[in-house]
User: Fold this.
Amino acid sequence: MSTRFWCETAWVDGELATGVLLTADEAGTLTSVETGIDTPPTIAEVVPGFTLPGGVNAHSHAFHRILRGRTHGDGGTFWTWRDVMYSVAAKLSPENYETVARAVFAEMLAGGYTSVGEFHYVHHTPDGTPYANPHAMERALARAATSAGLRIRLLDTCYLTGGIDTDLSEEQARFGDGGIDSYMDRHADLSQSFDTEFPVGSPGESFVYVGSAIHSIRAVPAANLPRFAELEGPVHVHLSEQPAENDACQAAYGTTPTQVLDRSGVVASNLSAVHATHLSDDDIATLGRAPATIVMCPCTEADLADGIGPARELADAGATISIGSDQHVVLDALRETQGMEAGERLRSGQRGRFSPAELITSLTTGGARSLDLPVGELAVGKACDFIAVRTDSMRTFGAVGEQIILSATSADVTMTVSGAHVRVRDGVHTELGEISKLYRAAFAALGMEV
Assistant:
C-alpha cells in the first residue's frame, strides 16, 4: 500500500514547485513526484507551507548535547571545553547512551534533520577494555536512531593517540583501539555484524549504515593514514579546526594536515573534511581538486571560537559544501545553514555569498553526498524524507520563495517525515512523545542534576 502527501509548495529539481504530490511505497521510497496538482487527492495528507527534502546533519557527536548551556560560566577555551566533554564521556554506558542518543536524535528530527553522520569514538569501557558484548556502544546508537526514525551513517572513528607522538590520556582510553590493525579488525567486524543486524534494503527502509572516520591528524599517526585509502564508503576527518592543530602538524611533519592526508592518499572524492577552518590556498586547491566534501558546523565553530572557514573559496575550488551540528549548540537545520552564510558575510563584507538555492543544496544533497545516503532530494528512487516549514509565522511571513531558508527556524518546522512516516508533528515526536521528557530521562540516566 502506498502513502501520499500533497505539498502546497516544495523544493523539486532545484526550484520551488507548487501542488506537489509525493507517492511512496510500503518501504518508504518515493515512487512518484508530480508537480502542478492544484487540488489534493482525497487519499493524501495535506502538507501546508514549504516542503524541503529532509536536512542531512553530516557531523554529530550525540553526547555533546549534554554540554549545552553548561560550559560558558567562566569563558574558557576550546581546550577547557574539552575537559568538560571528557567528564561527560566518562559517564557513558551502552544503556544510558541509548537513552541520551534517543533524546538527541528526536530533537534532530524536530530541528529539521532526517539523516545524521554520527562521528563516534566512545567505543570501549572507561579504562579502555572492550565490552563483553562487541560493539555495545555502536549498537546503542543504532537502536536509538531507528527508534526515533532518524537515518544514521555511523562513522566508526579511529582514535589512537592523544596528540602527535603522545599517548592517550586516561580520559581518552576508551576511545582507542591500541593500534591501526586493531582498529581495522574491529571496524571490519562492526561492518559485518551491522550488515546482519541492520541490513541495507531499499532507500526508504534502511536506517543504519556504517562508515569510517579519522579523528584528526593529532589522533592518528601519519604512518597509519594510508590504511584509510583501502576502505570503501565515506571517510570523515576533523581537519584544521584549531591553529594549534596546524602548528603541531607543521612541527611534526613539516606541512599542513591537509597535505599530510593528501600524501597518504586519503584526500579523494569519498573524504569529508569537518570544519576545514584554518586552510592555506594550497589546502583549498587540494580539497577542491579531489573533490572532497566539506562539513561546515557554523554554530559550533562560533561557540568554540574556532573561526570562520573559507566555505565560498572551497566551493569555488570544486568541493561540495555540507552542514553539521557537531556539539549541538542548537539542533536547528535552518539556523545552522543561516550561520554559514552569516559567517561568510562577516568575514568578506559581502552579502549573498551563497544563494538561497545553494544553501538548500548544502543542507540536503551536500550532506547526502558526504554520507553517501539515498536522500536529499524529492525524487523517484530516493527515501521519502522531508520537512514542512510554516510560511505564515511571525518569522517567515512575507518571505519570497526559497528565501525562507534565511528567515525560518526550527520553530517553523511543523512536520518531519522519514521513510514516509510522520516522526515529529508540531515539535512532538509521534511515538516518543515530548522531547523535553526524553532529556529529563537522559540527564537522570547520567546521574546529572539539572
Q: What stands out?
A: The longest helix spans residues 180-197.
